[in-house]
């Protein structure tokens, strides 16, 4: 803790992320927040990802097998020391000075476990050859839009490594089942870059993961002898956000 400010751990899972990783790391530096630790979990990259990560003085570099983003995030959680934790995909980036707003929000609201901001889709303009904002910002079930209390992962658990996609939906669904309180701030915090190598580019893989995550939710509710009423379903969908638009 520095000047009363708690340590924040930022976990970046990455696989062959040389194209955008530097920009993601630069956006962390533009938070101008201390104390902070950045944990880059390299999930079997064969490009220059390791060199880019190791060249950043903030980064704790961790090599992992090629197991997917969920296991990579879990490896990061194992060594994270922060009171608060967040995640940033290597091809996304944050707006400046977001972390301090999130930290201050949670510090004065001890009953709130997660604070979430808006996500701005960012797509390649083929005419200009650059990425530009696309569509309206949305509250999306995107891990990088939130700051979490680290203790939360002892209550909810870590990411389900048996799911290749849909791990974010599965985790947020389990959090909702436990009554974890999540507040929203009507402010863009994350630019989500859409490109050809996104895992979420594959609609079939994405839908399969989300359907499996929701099926597991229904099974847990059934085991608890809970009736899934329409109002409960709506509450869950509101909790997850505009997940169908990703």
Structural write-up:
By secondary structure, the protein is α/β, with parallel strands linked by helices. It has one domain (8-245): Spore Coat Polysaccharide Biosynthesis Protein SpsA, Chain A (Alpha-Beta Complex), CATH 3.90.550.10. The chain has eight helices and nine strands. Strands 1, 2, 3, 4, 5, 6, 7, 8 and 9 form a nine-stranded mixed β-sheet that branches. α2 links the parallel β2 and β3 (59-64). α6 (167-177) runs parallel beside α7. The radius of gyration is 18 Å and the shape is globular.
List strands and helices in order, with pairings.
Layout: E1 8-14, H1 21-29, E2 36-43, H2 49-54, E3 59-64, H3 69-79, E4 84-87, E5 93-94, H4 99-107, E6 114-125, E7 130-133, E8 146-149, H5 152-156, H6 167-177, E9 182-194, H7 203-223, H8 230-240
Parallel strand pairs: 1-2, 1-4, 2-3, 6-9
Antiparallel strand pairs: 4-8, 5-9, 6-7, 6-8
Percent strand equals 15-25%
Provide the CATH superfamily: Spore Coat Polysaccharide Biosynthesis Protein SpsA, Chain A
Order of helices and strands: EHEHEHEEHEEEHHEHH
Mean pLDDT: 87
Main sheet characteristics:
9 strands, mixed
> What's the helix count?
8
Give the gist of this structure:
This protein is of the alpha/beta class and 246 residues long. It has a single domain, classed as Spore Coat Polysaccharide Biosynthesis Protein SpsA, Chain A (Alpha-Beta Complex).
Provide tags for this entry.
alpha/beta, 9-stranded mixed β-sheet, 246 residues, 34% helix, single chain, Spore Coat Polysaccharide Biosynthesis Protein SpsA, Chain A, 9 strands
């Amino acid at each position: 803790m520095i000047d009363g400010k708690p340590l924040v751990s930022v976990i970046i899972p990455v696989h062959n992320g040389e194209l955008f990783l530097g920009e993601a790391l630069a956006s962390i530096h533009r938070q101008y927040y201390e104390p902070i630790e950045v944990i880059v979990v390299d999930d079997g990259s064969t490009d220059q990802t390791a060199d880019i990560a190791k060249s950043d003085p903030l980064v704790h570099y961790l090599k992992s097998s090629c197991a997917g983003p969920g296991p990579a995030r879990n490896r990061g959680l194992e060594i994270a020391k922060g009171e608060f934790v967040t995640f940033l995909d290597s091809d996304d980036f944050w707006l400046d000075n977001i972390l301090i707003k999130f930290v201050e929000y949670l510090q004065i609201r001890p009953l709130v476990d997660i604070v979430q901001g808006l996500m701005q889709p960012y797509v390649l303009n083929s005419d200009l050859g650059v990425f530009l904002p696309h569509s309206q910002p949305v509250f999306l079930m995107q891990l990088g839009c939130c700051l979490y209390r680290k203790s939360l992962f002892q209550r909810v658990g870590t990411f389900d490594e048996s799911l290749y996609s849909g791990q974010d939906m599965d985790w947020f669904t389990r959090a909702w089942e436990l009554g974890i309180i999540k507040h929203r701030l009507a402010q863009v915090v994350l630019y989500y870059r859409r490109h050809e190598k996104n895992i979420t580019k594959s609609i079939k893989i994405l839908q399969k993961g989300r359907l499996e995550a929701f099926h597991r939710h229904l099974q847990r509710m059934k085991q608890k002898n809970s009736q899934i009423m329409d109002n409960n379903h709506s509450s869950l969908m509101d909790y997850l956000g505009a997940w169908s638009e990703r």
